[in-house]
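Example S7 (structure tokens).
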């Protein structure tokens, strides 16, 4: 006997013995007990979180099995379409300097299935090494014939009953790989950048008194007459798709402007001043541009106020034909510089932070 426990020499042997004898298949005569494993995505391998959750499910299943229940722990893996596609595309770019378009649809799908066999095999090996008492004879993959056809059937029924519909939604879009990206695949980063303040002229000759000086209690002591409202943004290129500017409904500075119109600089389109509690009246100028097609928060505001969605970027992240001709075809970052330069030339750049 070994002086120390050698799991690699013992656990694999016993697990193979248990599996070959079908010990994990439902066999009890008591009431049924079933846990469906949350299917791991075939985008990599299991991590400590999986091991922790699997231990809990395994313990419960084994306990019920020992009680004589007809216990089943159902096992399977998830294709995780968008996430898996991104993994394969990155691998293809790094190893072969190619895109899915270079391969064509048929060959690219073949590569995805190859990855599924590789990654899925890693996951099932890890489950076996963990000692998971799942019923491998009932293993499923979410793209198996019967599985995805059942999903299709459900969606068709929902569509025929008018319970599912197609609509415009914001997605994470990668202009390089030309694909939507799962939220799980997005890496959020804080970066240093500029915060531009622009003057949006009020339409129809409207003016208002804006406070410019305050006492020690924060009360306004001086005002100036303005025929514009100052909007701050970190992405000037999206202003070409603005459909409103918004203020907080309780912000005294802008109460008189709610319902009025402003003229969108460079575009000339008139857009309304709306009130919404999303605005933080203490941050920036207290005025926020609304571009529902290019910002998740603006999208929610647009839905609440029934605003249009004007997309001003192509799938390649260049400015499209919904924008003034001077900016069409420009890359978004090139357009950003051009827009700031043009607004400054028109005297509408208030400040840059």
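Recovered sequence:
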């Amino acid at each position: 006997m070994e002086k120390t426990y050698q799991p690699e020499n013992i656990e694999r042997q016993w697990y193979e013995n248990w599996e070959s004898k079908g010990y994990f298949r439902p066999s009890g005569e008591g009431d049924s007990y079933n846990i469906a494993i949350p299917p791991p995505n075939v985008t990599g391998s299991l991590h400590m979180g999986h091991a922790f959750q699997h231990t809990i499910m395994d313990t419960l299943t084994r306990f019920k099995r020992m009680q004589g229940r007809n216990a089943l722990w159902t096992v399977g893996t998830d294709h995780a379409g968008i996430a898996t596609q991104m993994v394969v595309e990155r691998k293809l770019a790094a190893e072969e300097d190619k895109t899915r378009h270079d391969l064509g649809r048929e060959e690219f799908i073949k590569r995805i299935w190859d990855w599924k066999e590789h990654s899925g095999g890693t996951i099932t090996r890890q489950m076996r090494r963990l000692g998971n008492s799942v019923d491998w004879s009932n293993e499923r993959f979410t793209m198996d014939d019967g599985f995805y056809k059942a999903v299709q059937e459900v969606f068709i029924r929902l569509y025929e009953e008018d319970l599912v519909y197609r609509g415009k939604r914001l997605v994470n879009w990668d202009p390089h790989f030309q694909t939507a990206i799962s939220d799980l695949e997005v890496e959020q980063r804080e970066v240093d950048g500029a915060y531009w303040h622009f003057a949006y002229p009020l339409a129809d000759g409207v003016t208002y008194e804006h406070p410019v000086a305050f006492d020690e209690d924060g009360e306004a002591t001086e005002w100036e007459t303005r025929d514009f409202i100052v909007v701050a943004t970190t992405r000037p290129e999206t202003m070409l798709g603005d459909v409103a500017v918004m203020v907080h409904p309780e912000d005294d500075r802008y109460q008189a402007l709610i319902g009025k119109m402003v003229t969108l600089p460079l575009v000339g389109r008139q857009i309304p001043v709306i009130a919404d509690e999303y605005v933080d009246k203490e941050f920036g100028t207290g005025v926020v541009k609304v571009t529902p097609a290019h910002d998740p928060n603006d999208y929610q505001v647009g839905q609440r106020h029934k605003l249009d969605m004007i997309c001003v970027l192509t799938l390649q992240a260049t400015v499209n034909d919904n924008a003034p001709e001077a900016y069409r075809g420009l890359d978004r970052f090139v357009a950003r510089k051009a827009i700031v330069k043009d607004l400054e030339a028109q005297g509408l750049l208030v400040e840059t932070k």
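Notes on this example. The first strand starts at residue 32 and ends at 36.
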